[in-house]
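Hi F.,

I've been meaning to write this up properly since the lab meeting, where we talked about keeping a consistent format for the predictions we share between groups. The idea is simple: the sequence comes first, exactly as it goes in, then the structure tokens exactly as they come out, then a line or two of notes. No screenshots and no reformatting. I'm using this chain as the first example so we have something concrete to point to.
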Amino acid sequence: MTRLAEVPLIYVYGVGLGYYYQAAQSWLQEDPSRRLVFLEDNLAVIHRLFETNLGFQLVHDPQVQLHFFEDLEKSKELFHILYWNFFLTTLTVSGLKLYQDLKAEQYAHLKHTLAYEASVKNSLLTEYLEYGVGFFKNFYPNILSLEGAYLADELFGKFHNIPAIICGAGPSLEKNLSLLGKLLNKALVFAGGSALNALSKRDIQPHFGAGIDPNVPQYDRLSTNSSFETPFFYRNRLLHKAFNTIHGPRLYVTGSGGYDISSFFEEGLGIKGTPIEEGHNVVNFCLEIAHALGCNPIIFVGMDLAYTDMKAYASGVIEDNRVEAADITTTQNIDQAALLKTDIYGKPIYTLWKWIAEAEWIGDFAKAHPDIRVINATEGGLGFPGVPNKTLQEVADKYLKEDYDFKGMIHSEIFNSSMPQVKKEKISYLMQDLQQSLTRCVEDFEVLIEETRVIQIRSEKDQKVCFPQQTGKAALYESDLAEEIGYRYVLHIFNEAYTRVLNRELQGIQHAPISEVQQALEKLDLLIKRFVFLRDVAKVNLELIKMAMHEHVTLPAPTFPKPGKITCKQTKVQGVIQGSSSFHAQGQILSSAYFEKGLQEGVAEFFYPNGQPYSRQVFKEGVWEGKQEFYYPTGTVKTLLNYEGGKLITAQLFYPDGTLKSHVAPLGDESLPNE
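Output, unedited:
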């Protein structure tokens, strides 16, 4: 239990006749910075409270707040305001004993909403207050490697009404793996993060991978799965070390959640994108992408969002995936403590509030897109509000009846998403342009700091408030600053965040019992504080850019003009592909394969738009058999895979110059990277 002496903020669900306020008065009086916030959802109770002397004391106590809310959904703006009133403040949530008993579910929901929302927003705010290092240290080196990537946004709408299966890494995924491997010609399969490892353990190659996570475990996940040539959706927030492990086609998704910097490079490089949300995690990201591609229905597997059978993951993700109730329920952090909910079968199951929020996000998505059929085929776990639960077999029988040559289709469409205009020289030029602008921003802030101090000294000397509160020189420099690309694309978002942070101090100054002159001086202190912060953000970004450009290794990245309209030649009998299947663009063959009753057989060949070999793959009954070869546009070997009956035996990955990048030995021996 958290000791109240260490907690500066208490939320209480329900106010009653104010007796909880009475009990907390001594706690409040011990420290004037402490705050007590009552949240009441019954207006009649508030009306009765106002009829009492204690109620009068409560509403006139500057350390106490009383708020009415209808329900959590309708009161999001209230909770948003409360967050900014108490950002980065340790909190605890309590409730009237009556409400804890009679409104147990509402109380639990409120308790975890307050804690979880504060945790999520605090993480982002902390990142801003730490100058965005967690984001920019990955963004800059990743954007320098954009040449040779493909524009994911160009794929949007190209897979209209094709089913999609999105894989999580929850424990229930194991129930679906056997069937999932048989559906690879009937639905596009997406896997991100841990799900890639879970599928790799069963030698299932998804059609698309995805990653947005800047944390170190992302490298562990991407460096240990065997989806070497899987096309990979990413944003530049992705951990750079993990980014470097992507060996297959890189599919760049425009935008950068929470920052404006990507717009600068995209505009400068002539990249036009379609805004999409990232959601809470990579699975939500995959859902947004599948929807943008035009997929329908969209089916989830392995999305337990709970400790099904007291396991954290499906096998293949971590060595020991089991958890103990005592370990997951006894934590001082409310948002990290497991709680009991009901699973899709009506049985109690442990989950986390962040998982509940993710489930609600998917439920909200389904509600907002009634034209898309969203189905939960996880066969366990929490489920999603308003989303039907079915077994994967039921879904396959009803919706997955058509065969597709996905390898040929994806290969061809990816080349139509090339970005031939994106060159490393242009990226470097834009980076230098940004550097120069940020340098000017630093100089401008130095002037603004000095000029503000001039006003301060003048006010202090004359003991009167100066008007205006800005010198003419400062006004000119601030106007110039607003036009700098460094300010517009980097610093602006930090200015907005830090202004909110300082607003709490500003309110304190405005309500403090001090003279008008002292108030003006302290406001100028806040202004200087903001200028210093933004100057330091600019300095940190300059250093990160310098490091990224110094450490960046330029590798050959040939690009091709878009091949143009894609045509497909194949024969289907009652939805089943039979015989040859090929994809062409303007007379140039891009892929050629053969199918026997819907399953690939024999040799399949894939080509670059200029006719150079891209890969040679061999199939037996729909799975890889024997030697699989992939080539760089120069003809140099890129990847050599050896399979037996669909199971990986050995793998060799090469750099464009022919140097061995990594080697995966047979029988599960460890990877031996040469990097």
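Notes:
Confidence is low (pLDDT under 50) at residues 666-675.
The first helix runs from residue 19 to 30.

If this format works for you, I'll send the rest the same way.

G.
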